[in-house]
Design goal:
By secondary structure, the chain is an alpha+beta fold. Helices cover 54% and strands 12% of the residues. Strands 5-6-4-7 form a 4-stranded antiparallel beta sheet, covered by helices on one side.
Length: 266
């Protein structure tokens, strides 16, 4: 299921879409105004910002006028920069595979769970216990993630071709739950394709409406290129809905992002 918009998720999405363009840290008053336009009340903004601060995503700072503000940590900037290549489709699809082989001692099984969950969040499919696979274009992001979490000692990475023995398309259907991925794409389309149709047929949106529609579309979309990490098109079903979902998001971005920025920076 596509996750409902939560205050914390919308704040992360805001920083990815617009927060990095601020000159300096984002004032708390601006966060309250901008997340309020997306339906998040002030107490929820403040509590969610506090949780993101505890996680090390945001750092307390001062705006130019001395007001309370929050800046992205270096790790958060790296996460968002890595995400750009997936979310906006700038990473070319590789025909090679990246294989992660890991072994974690039983006394450190909490790290085993962390490793599995992070590989899954990066879009890896499971080949066998301790063997996970992804398209090779995620190699750099995988390295950043494993280094940030201190997990590199447990993992070996290999890059190459699938040589057999089942056809690669059949193997991909085992490594990933393609039906579940297709459903996520369809849910995105159900929610956001009507917004695009209205834009195509109606008047230009106001900056506030463009900002709100874009933030919500991005907040839904940004998870999909991780669940579906850019598998080669010839290995997917002919009616794969991810093609249409990507096209809808790309057009929403083209139509809404710049106009929404006029509301963020009036």
């Amino acid at each position: 299921m596509v996750e409902q918009h939560t205050p914390r998720s919308l704040i992360v999405t805001f920083y990815g879409a617009y927060g990095r363009a601020f000159e300096g840290p984002v004032p708390v008053s601006a966060l309250v105004r901008l997340l309020g336009a997306a339906g998040v009340d002030a107490p929820s903004v403040r509590s969610s910002v506090s949780r993101l601060k505890r996680r090390g995503f945001l750092l307390p700072a001062k705006a130019a006028d001395g007001a309370a503000a929050y800046a992205l940590s270096d790790e958060a900037r790296q996460l968002l920069d890595d995400g750009d290549r997936r979310i906006y489709g700038t990473a070319p699809v590789s025909q090679e595979w990246l294989v992660a082989v890991f072994s974690v001692p039983e006394q450190e099984r909490n790290k085993r769970h962390l490793l599995r969950s992070r590989l899954a969040r990066l879009g890896y499919g499971s080949v066998a216990p301790g063997v996970w696979i992804a398209p090779a274009q995620v190699a750099e992001e995988t390295g950043h993630t494993l280094e940030r979490l201190g997990l590199t000692a447990y993992v070996e990475l290999f890059r190459g071709a699938h040589l057999g023995f089942a056809p690669t398309a059949e193997a991909v259907a085992r490594w990933w739950d393609l039906a579940a991925l297709a459903k996520q794409h369809e849910e995105f389309l159900d929610r956001h394709e009507p917004v695009l149709r209205a834009l195509q047929c109606g008047p230009e949106p106001s900056p506030e409406q463009a900002y709100r529609d874009y933030l919500q579309a991005l907040d839904t979309w940004r998870r999909l290129p991780y669940a579906d990490p850019g598998l080669p098109r010839d290995l997917l079903p002919s009616d794969w809905p991810g093609d249409r979902a990507a096209a809808v998001f790309a057009e929403l971005h083209s139509r809404l992002h710049a106009t929404g920025a006029l509301f963020v920076h009036p």
